[in-house]
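Recall that a protein's primary structure is simply its ordered list of amino acids. Everything else, from secondary elements to tertiary packing, is in principle encoded there. The following example makes that idea concrete.
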Amino acid sequence: MDVSKIQGNIDPTAPVKSTRIRVGRNIDGFGLSPGITKDQRINVESLMKKAFANLEGDLAGTYYPLTGMAETVRQQLVDDHFLFVSGDKNLIVSGMERDWPEGRGIFHNKDKTFLTWVNEEDQLRIISMQKGGDVRAVFDRLARGIKAVGDSVKAESGSDFMLDPKYGYIHSCPTNLGTGMRASVHIDLPGYAKQGAAVLSARCEELHLQPRGTRGESGGQTGVTYDISNKHRLGYSEVELVQKMIDGVNMLYKEDVALCQAHGI
């Protein structure tokens, strides 16, 4: 995950509201979420509390366990759009929400640009995010964060992240096999909004991208702001997927400007 291999960045004139890149990771010796035992989940959380305490510099921060969380803390995490909650039907039916909320929590750094969810869909969901469209900066922080977390877990437990030579990093959901990485931006595309969702989806397919609403995977679309991300996880490197996202979003923005002119927007 070498940021120096990425060419260019998102056009600074593009109406990008925010950038977010995440990966999933699971630790050798513990079950994946559908089959993890209560004791294992609690042990993962205990291990991560120690690992987070070792993070330094811009990655250093605070871990907030969901169990016994104060209302003021909970509300702040909700306001920051950091808090993951129970109720996802897919997670429930697959057994991933057993013993909720025990053994689960959220870590974030002081600047609220580096986060890790503990024991949600995967044991770890490592996230780098910030306002604007500086994808290189977000990717650089993510790469440093993954290494720092991995090194700290190794130092505390002797364990590595689950990694298969053929399928890459192992995740609870097969769609995340490989890199487990989703690099996304929230961007205004009023021209494509005028054309309709089917047109945007078809164009994103050509660019190896995936459009979503800003309310998440199943939350629907409102207004002209779209969540645009890399489509693939498996068969490409992290650098290749981020490059596809940067190049594709720049192309969509260029085309959207032309569509706006054509529609008189």
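Strands lie at 16-25, 61-65, 105-109, 114-118, 124-131, 163-164, 168-169, 182-188, 209-213, 225-230. The chain has a mean pLDDT of 94.
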